[in-house]
Amino acid sequence: DILSTLETYFSSDRNDLDGKQIVITAGPTREAVDPVRYFTNYSSGKMGFALAEQAAKRGADVTLIAGPVSLPTPENVKRIDVVTADDMFQAVIKAADLADVVIKAAAVADYRPAQVATEKMKKSDDAMAIEMERTKDILWTLGQMKTNQILVGFAAESERLDEYAKKKLEKKNLDLICANNIKAEGAGFNKDTNVMTLMRRDGERVELPLQSKHEAANRILDEVKRLDVNHT
Amino acid sequence: DILSTLETYFSSDRNDLDGKQIVITAGPTREAVDPVRYFTNYSSGKMGFALAEQAAKRGADVTLIAGPVSLPTPENVKRIDVVTADDMFQAVIKAADLADVVIKAAAVADYRPAQVATEKMKKSDDAMAIEMERTKDILWTLGQMKTNQILVGFAAESERLDEYAKKKLEKKNLDLICANNIKAEGAGFNKDTNVMTLMRRDGERVELPLQSKHEAANRILDEVKRLDVNHT
Fold first, then answer.
1. Which of A98, A210, B143, B191 has the fewest Cβ atoms nearer than 10 Å?
2. What b-and-e string marks burial along B110-129, b requiring 16 or more CB atoms within 10 Å of the CB?
3. Predicted ipTM of the assembly
4. What is the pTM of this model?
């Protein structure tokens, strides 16, 4: 019947990404204030690692570029560890060159301290301000560099999810954006589940139920596969 | 002979801290900027957890107040988990009330963002500054509250270690300070070894060789025991 046909078509047992070069980024970055203190975010890397694991199981040739997380490397995945937004930029731009698909699941710092103190800062009794500067925009750069690659981004928002996600999809020249409300029940950082909406450039949207990050990863890869079929 | 006598005296097999109420703090704190971003530091909690484990083995009644770390709770230790400097302050002041010894090994944030955004901050093309305010000084407060407790602090510095550690010992009214240069070979954050100098109020100093954090923990507890014997 049609259901089992669909199931087979979308099943992760198929070797349906065989030979595809997929670059996936995961985790947070750390931006030093001084030798002791740093600025970071709550990303655990679980979504990106789930994507890498499932893509490799489906036959893709996966490069996983990971910020500082405490997760084991999935089988048959080439892992590159980075720490700062600038490290991440260099590694992604280099790896993206030969990729068919780039999925940017990392939560890269938008800002970093403008000066990094080489010695530990001494405290005083006063308040102080930390001057922050913008980091390079990796996703925007990838969107500009893109020739026939499929580019997938994420939007993690605490409000106005649809509006912000659509804006990001266009501004960054993405093919697909995976939007999630970090305040939704069962979603967000360091959880094993997620609640996501997948939004395509042509306006099609898929609202996924609360499911494991591995199930969500397979649904994202299904959409990537569909985009790739139409693409070629 | 004298060496084996000393060895027995300082050995961790003795139940020499039996019945002592010891409060130990460990790990970093996290100070939120918004629902996604935060400030923190490189403390892994290993030194504080080693102290808690060894103190419990030596018969002490240990309360371990831990910031966000991924370490298992040592046997026979009562653990209280906290996240922010303010949580840490509340928990320590409450626990210190009945303690014989307080060892503050945690790397508590000195500063936190003056405002915490309730929604994720949107980036703009401009630089920005994060206004920071001082957190409450836990060690200074403990030094002021102290009646006949033994108070032990840590100084992790990247330069002028002796000068900064002595100043801290006096300013915070400590009995012992464990000073370490985070730039020394084999020392510092997330390592399993340390190189420390233990400085007492009366000017006595013990320079420890490069050794495991568990060995260093036992040496600190030896000094605490000696201070306690003179104390009573």
1. A98
2. bbbbeeeeeebbeeeeeebe
3. 0.84
4. 0.86
